[in-house]
Design a protein that fits this description.
This protein has 16 helices and 12 strands. By secondary structure, it is α/β, with parallel strands linked by helices. The protein binds pyridoxal-5'-phosphate.
Amino acid sequence: MRFLARTFGEAIAAFGPKIELGAPAELARGGSCSHARRRSVKRPIYLDHQATTPVDPRVLEAMLPYFTEHFGNAASKAHAFGWAAEGAVAEARERIARAIGAEEPSEIIFTSGATESNNLALRGAALAYARNGGGSRGHLIVTAIEHRAVLDPCAALEREGFEVSYVPVPKNGVLEPAQIEEAFRDNTLLVSVMAANNEIGTLQPIAETAALCRARNVLFHTDAAQALGQLPLAVHRDDIDLASLSAHKFYGPKGVGALYVRRVSRQVRLVPQLLGGGHELGLRSGTLNVPGIVGMGVAAELAVRELEAVNAQQLRLRELLWQRLVATIPAISLNGDSERRLSGNLNLLIPGVRADKLMLALPLLALASGSACSSLTGVPSHVLRALGLGEEAAACSIRIGMGRNTTEEEVLLSADRLEAAVARLRGRAQTP
Ligand code: PLP
C-alpha cells in the first residue's frame, strides 16, 4: 500500500497541474525547469469517466459570474445580490426537473452530491416512516451491488433497529425484479435500486421495480448518479419517488448534487439529516453552492440534449476497443452484461494480471480497479464478488470508462498500451 501511495504521489507530481498564487515573475514566464519538464511529458489518456468527468467549458462559463459578480447568498431575501442568486438557483432547479421528468421544480432538493442524496433518501425516509414500539422499526430492500453510499447508510440503519434485505443479482449483474418481489415483507418501507452500476455499468430495470413498489405502496428510490446523460430518466412517469443525482458525473462541477423528492402527486416525507437554517424546504439546511448549482443545471440540460449523439459515439468506441482487446489479449472477458450497460463502460477480467500491477505499468492510461471509492480501501470490489467472481478474479479486473470527449485515436492508443503491458506482465509472471 505504501509503495502504491508513493508511486501515485510521484505520478501526481509529474502530471498534476500546480496552482500558483502570485508566482514570482520568472516562474510566471515559464522559466522553471519543472514546468518545462512537465510540458514535455505526454499527458495520460483519461478513461475513468465513471469516477468523474471534466467540467464542460459551457458549464464553466455559466458558473463563473456566480463566483464574482453575482456572489450573493440565495437565502438573502432583502437585496438584489440575494435575488440574483435566488433567481439563478430557481432556473437551475427548473432545468434539472425538466431533465429528469419531474412534475415540479420544487421536487428538486440541492445537496453536496449523490452520497448525501442517498443518505437523505434512505435515512430520511426510514426515519420518517419508521414503526415505533417493540420489534423491527421497518424493512428496506436494496441490491447487493449498490454503491457504498447506499450500503453504508443501510448498515447504519440496521444498527438502529431496521432490517435490510440485500438482494443478489445474477452473473450478468442485471437485477431480476422477481427477486425484489420475493423480498417484500409486510413492513417494507422502501426499495432502493441503482439506475446504472458504477463499476460494471449494468442498467437496472428501475421502471419495472418501481411499478412493483407502487402496487404495494412501498417507496422506491434510485441512485441515478451514473444515469443522467447516459439514459433517459422519467421519474414522474416511472413511479420513482426519490432519485439521487451528482453533477460531476455529467460534466458538471464536483461537490454538488440533488435529490428528487416526489411531492406533487404523492407527498414523500423525509426526516432532514442536516439541521440549520431550514433551506431547501427544510429538508437540507446549509447555504447553497450557487455557482455549483448553476453549473449542475446547465450540465443537466446539455446531458439530456446530447444524450443520443454521445451514446452513439461512446458505443462505437467501446465496440472498437473491445474488438481490439479480444483480438490481442488471450482469455480476456467482460464482467457484467454485454448489452445492458452504460455505452462507455467496459469492465474487463484479464486472468493472471492484477489490476494494481497493470495500472502501475500504465501511468499514461487513467483506468480504475473497482470504484473510485473501493480503490481507496484496497478491498476487492463487492460488486464483482456479488457476480460470483473469486477474490483473485476480482483483483484481476479493470474498469474502463469512455466519455463524451474520448477520441478514436485515444482508444486505439489505449488498446496498444494495454496489450503491451499485459504481455509484459504475463511474460514476467512466467519467468522463474
Ligand atoms: N452513487 C454512485 C452510483 C456513484 O457512482 C457515486 C460516485 O462514485 C456516488 C453514488 C457518490 O457520488 P458523489 O461523488 O456525488 O458523492
